[in-house]
Amino acid sequence: MYEHYFPRIYSYVRCRVNNPAVSDDLTSTIFEKVLSRLDSYSSDRGTFSTWLFTIAHNVVVDYFKEPEHSAVCLEMAHEVVSPEPDPQDQIVALLTNEQLIQALQQLTERERNIISLKFWGGLTNRNIASLTGLSESNVGIILYRSMQRLRSLLD
Questions:
Q1: What are the pLDDT digits (tens) for 119-140?
Q2: What CATH number corresponds to the domain at position 120?
Q3: Residue 30 CB-density burial (10 A; 0-12 exposed, 13-18 middle, 19+ buried)
Q4: Rounded CA gap, 128 and 118, in Å?
Q5: Class of residue 142 by CB neighbours under 10 A (exposed 0-12, middle 13-18, buried 19+)
Q6: How many domains does the chain have?
Q7: Predicted confidence (pLDDT) at residue 92 exceeds the cutoff of 70
Q8: Residue 136: which residues within 8 A CB-CB, separation 6 or more?
Q9: Domain that holds residue 38
Q10: Does residue 61 surpass a pLDDT of 90?
Q11: Whole-prediction pTM value?
Q12: In whole angstroms, what is the distance from residue 92 CA to residue 123 CA?
């Protein structure tokens, strides 16, 4: 379970939290909670991945409830770029990613969270809907509008 879900959970946490060390700690906390509550999981209430991401979401929300933490989202966007670009591509990618990070910060917390769950967490709209309490179509609309807004901010 850990090996299967770790990359997705860590990516989700990392893109929500602007600190690699804190991301490590929160990911550990998530898996500790999952293991301690494994007997409470019920497939009648949703898929395992939705249950797991609900715990992850709650741990991240609890982290941001502490006054000293600010919600800077998707700081790791620069890590999504192709792994070994030439120097010119690296400069262009860095500038583009800085613009992306600034544009993402202009979105609402809900929009950033849904984008994080979709693209870094790898969840489906149905899983995101289950996690957030929104309808599946509402998740799709929020994603669509958020991406449109990002495009206009980046143009």
A1: 878 888 998 998 888 999 999 9
A2: 1.10.10.10
A3: buried
A4: 7
A5: buried
A6: 1
A7: no
A8: 125, 126, 129
A9: 2-74+81-154
A10: no
A11: 0.60
A12: 29
Q: Would you say 117 and 110 are in contact if contact means Cβ atoms under 8 Å apart?
A: no
Q: What percent of the chain has pLDDT over 90?
A: 26
Give me 112's structure tokens: 């950033």
Task: Kindly write down the DSSP assignment for every residue of the chain, as one continuous string.
Answer: -HHHHHHHHHHHHHHHSS-HHHHHHHHHHHHHHHHHTGGG--GGG--HHHHHHHHHHHHHHHHHHSTT------GGGGGGS-SS--HHHHHHHHHHHHHHHHHHHTS-HHHHHHHIIIIIS---HHHHHHHHT--HHHHHHHHHHHHHHHHHHH-
Nearest CA-CA partner of 11 in 120, 99, 90: 120
pLDDT of residue 97: 65
Asked if residue 80 has pLDDT above 80, the reply is no
Inter-residue contact 117 to 128 (CB < 8 Å): yes
**Beta-carbon count within 10 A of 23 CB:** 23
Closest CA to 99 of 36, 43, 152: 152
